[in-house]
Specification:
Elements lengths: L1 H20 L6 E4 L21 E4 L5 H8 L18 H14 L6 E8 L12 E5 L11 H8 L16 H4 L17 H6 L25 E7 L14 E4 L16 E3 L8 E2 L3 E3 L1
Parallel strand pairs: 5-8
Antiparallel strand pairs: 1-2, 2-9, 3-4, 5-6, 6-7
């Protein structure tokens, strides 16, 4: 009887351990892979195949950034607001440092002493040489295709114009609704400034089909890729990196997941942030 009890107890322990080992990482959403079913996507009806991966449920907050980096470069200071004013290089460093802190293998190899010959920008004075370790389980920036796939709802996509709805105000923070009042004038900086437009706490607006928040608006999000005119090609060099999703300063069209933004890797601004992902 005692032997049977011990065997049952052992089975229960193994089941518990097994279920814990398959638990999704904290604040990350599992995105099931496949081809693009979102009919509005730049990648619809292409042979681009996305593998399963994890992506942040929210944009990285100032608290999360400060906990890892020990500083807060943001213009609008609040722990629950998305971090902003971060360059592409800052974000790559954040990914590696967070990976190390959490016992994961860093995804990036960063050589700060060697200038990247693939970086053609005349304005980027950093030009670190950064390569990837494809099999590493650490944090990384999403590729443009991964980002657009997740923002468009993955395999659950309803082909919305914005990430989660056809109405921008339901799901996005942008220049008209990111301040004290809803602006109805034409875009102008004076109106935005007087309205005290700014970033907003993550996770307030409606999520998309996968339960991911703020992939339209709030802050522009860095992606891994070089910007190329033909987004389907594997661009191996360039002068600017891709950003997606639009931000609180920009027009509503920038909040559409199909919109392709670009910026020098050393660039930053009060509407430039990030969202992390991890390979499965």
């Amino acid at each position: 009887m005692k032997k049977i009890f011990l065997m049952v107890l052992l089975q229960l322990i193994l089941l518990t351990v097994g279920s814990c080992s398959h638990k999704e990482p904290d604040k990350l959403v599992l995105v099931k892979g496949g081809t693009f079913v979102n009919t509005k996507s730049n990648f619809f009806e292409t042979d681009i195949q996305i593998r399963d991966f994890y992506i942040g449920k929210y944009e990285i907050t100032q608290k999360e950034w400060t906990d890892i980096m020990g500083n807060n470069p943001s213009q609008f200071k609040d722990p629950e607001l998305p971090v902003e004013s971060v360059s592409w290089y800052d974000c790559v460093e954040y990914c590696n440092k967070r990976s190390i802190k959490e016992g994961l293998e860093p995804y990036y190899l960063i050589d700060k002493d060697k200038k990247d010959s693939d970086n053609k920008s005349e304005y980027d004075n950093v030009k670190w040489t950064i390569t990837i370790k494809k099999e590493a389980n650490g944090y990384r920036l999403p590729t443009e295709a991964e980002w657009e796939y997740a923002a468009g709802g993955g395999q659950l996509s309803k082909s919305y114009t914005y990430s989660g709805d056809n109405k921008a105000d339901e799901t996005a923070w942008y220049w008209r609704n990111a301040g004290n009042d809803y602006l109805t004038v034409d875009w102008n900086w004076s109106a935005i400034e007087n309205n005290k437009d700014k970033t907003q706490p993550v996770g307030i607006k409606k999520p998309n089909e996968l339960g991911i928040y703020d992939m339209s608006g709030n802050v522009r999000e860095w992606c891994w890729d070089w910007y190329g005119e033909d987004y389907i090609e594997n661009v191996t060099s360039g002068s600017q990196r891709v950003w997606k999703g639009g931000g609180w300063i920009g027009d509503v069209s920038c909040c559409e997941p199909v919109y392709r933004g670009k910026f020098e890797a050393n660039g930053f601004g009060p509407d430039q942030g990030l969202r992390v992902c991890r390979s499965k």
